[in-house]
Amino acid sequence: MAGARIVIDATENDVLDALNELLRRTSDPTPAFEDIGKYLLISRDDRWGQQEAPDGSKWAPLSGVTLSLKTQNRDKILVETGHLRVNSLSYFAEPTALLFGTSAIYGAVHQFGAKQGDFGCTKRGTPIPWSDIPARPFLGISNEGETEILDIIQDYLAELFG
C-alpha cells in the first residue's frame, strides 16, 4: 500500500499479547485476521461519519480556501468524491499479517499532515502543497476498537481450542 496503513507496534498491550497467543496456537490465523479487517472497515465508517480520529478527537476544520474550492460535500471533511473513504481503504489478511490502509498516495498526507512546500514546487514556483495541511488521522484503533479486536481473537481461540 503506497498511501498509509496501520501498524500495531507496542510492547505491553492486551491486543498484542492476544495476537502473539493466536500466532503461537494456530498455524493459520487468517480467518481471525479477516474478521479483524472487516471490523476495522466498520469502525472506519463510524468514525468517518463522526469526522473524528481514532482517539476521539475531531478532525481539524477545513480552511476557508478549501471550502471555496469544494464543489460537492462541502460540509464533510476528507470527503470530496468519497474515493478515500469508500474505494481506497481495504485490508489484506494472510497467515503472517493483516494489512489495513489506503492505496491512495494522498491518504498519507491526510493521515499525517504536510507543511507548505513539503513536496517541492510546481514549474511556476508554487509550493506543493500550496499551504499547510493539518493531520486528520483516519487510520488507527480506538480504545473501543482494541476491546473489539481482543474479543475477536478470544472468540476465535475459544472456537478452536474450547
Main sheet specs: 3 strands, antiparallel
Mean pLDDT: 86
Helix content: 40-55%
Low-confidence stretches: none
Q: Give me the number of helical elements.
A: 6
- Overall 3D shape: elongated
Q: What is the tally of beta strands?
A: 3
Beta-strand residue percentage = 5-15%
- Please provide the ordered H/E string of secondary-structure elements: EHHHHEEHH
Which secondary-structure class do the elements indicate? mainly alpha
In total, how many domains does the architecture comprise? 1
Distance between the termini: 36 Å
What's the arrangement of strands in the largest beta sheet?
1-3-2
The gyration radius over C-alpha positions equals 18 Å
Your description of this structure?
Strands 1-3-2 form a 3-stranded antiparallel sheet. The protein has helices at 14-25, 30-50, 64-69, 83-88, 105-112, 143-161; strands at 4-5, 89-94, 97-102. Helix 2 packs antiparallel against helix 6 (143-161). The mean pLDDT is 86. The protein has one domain. The protein is mainly α and 162 residues long. The chain contains 6 helices and 3 strands, in the order E-H-H-H-H-E-E-H-H.
